[in-house]
Amino acid sequence: MTLENIVVVGGGLAGAHTAAALRARGHRGALTLVAAEPHPPYDRPPLTKTVLAGAEEDTSFPTDWAALGVELRLGERAEALDLHDHAPGGVLKTSAGALAFDGLVLATGAEPVRLPGTGRQHLVRTVDDVRALRPLLRPGIRLALVGAGWIGAEVATVAAAQGCRVTVVEAGPAPLAAAVGAEVGGRTAPWYAAAGVTLRCGTAVTSVDPGGLRLADGEFLAADVVVVGVGARPAVDWLTDSGLEIARGVVVDESLRTGRPEVVALGDCAAWWSPRYRRHMVVEHWDTALKASEQAAAALLGEDVRHDPVPYFWSDQFGRTVQYAGDHRDADRTVLRGSPEDPAWAVLWLAGDRLCAVLAVDRPRDLVQARRALARGCEVDLPAATDPGTALRDALRAA
User: Which of 41, 195, 247, 356 is the most exposed place for a label (fewest CB within 10 A)?
Assistant: First the structure.
């Protein structure tokens, strides 16, 4: 199938890199990138680190879009997709009109969850969000941050360093409980106190009101600034009447193709089939989106591909680098390497003797060695694994 006119929807990492990959793989027809934000495609991980701290301003990808022959349609939001009575191809309806295509890339990412209430709540999803929040982080400011997940911890890190009086309110029993479980997440709780941040777990928020937060028990927590970081949802509501299968994200197979082979989806908005984990996966992290971009471009151009990575992500918080690889959903126990009181430690998740996932705190070699082993499948020698002085690779054997 020769595609003459490809449209990419989404200006984040997934969309931008897929557009570039399409050109690199030989697509010579029209190529249009539609992005809801008014900025050229940029990198998001630095937003809650260097950009919020004021150490970096522009994280745009160093791509010469004109030289690539990519038409950027910035500040244009996708509103509907018409695939009916079109085969192959269809019509993308946007806030600026309609675009016909015979190949489509869906990379619309995710949208942050907002809380009820009439008070102002700051989000940290876009560069404009972060630029609006940055000047408010002043010494003595009372900052209430809802959510002790990855983003919440990074924002708390920067705000505390700026001298803000930070209170983090978390509905779960521990930081990162939704991501890595309460037992492992609880090991990061002392980091907050050491940074001068007040952490209140098991505390639900009813609404964001003028002047602060209304908590579920009726208490009012006064704050000068409220930041909400309670997660995100795939930005797929606009596809409801498209005829594509939606199950949290756009459902795709292991080649990232939808039920229409001329339509692929990737990144935070895609629910891709993983033969490795035997289920559809929605992984809202940078590394997965980057890996998927080459695969999505190849699939759209008719190549035989298989996208089945081991999920990986990282976070910088309270002076530590925290890295995670794998998927611990099927694990039945954990193994600790080192003590959480040490400067560096790691946790392994196991299902029987099989390694499922790893969390490494300032132990990058553990992460690298476990990540390689996870890709091929391995079992763990427990006595060696529990000794932090033993190289992790010496505790892993092929399954």
Answer: 247
The fold for domain 5-111+233-300 equals: FAD/NAD(P)-binding domain (3.50.50)
Distance from C-alpha of 154 to C-alpha of 149, rounded to nearest angstrom: 9
172-183 pLDDT tens trace: 999 999 999 999
Note if the pTM is more than 0.85: yes
Structure confidence by residue, pLDDT tens digits, 70-91: 999 999 999 999 998 767 889 9
Q: Which of 116, 117, 131, 219 is nearest to 167 (CA)?
A: 219
Tokens linked to 51? 């950009």
Non-local CB neighbours of 245 within 8 Å, separated by 6+ positions: 251, 258, 259
* Chain Cα centroid distance, residue 156: 18
- What are the CA-CA distances from residue 65 to residues 4, 61, 70, 72, 73 (Å)? 18, 10, 5, 8, 11
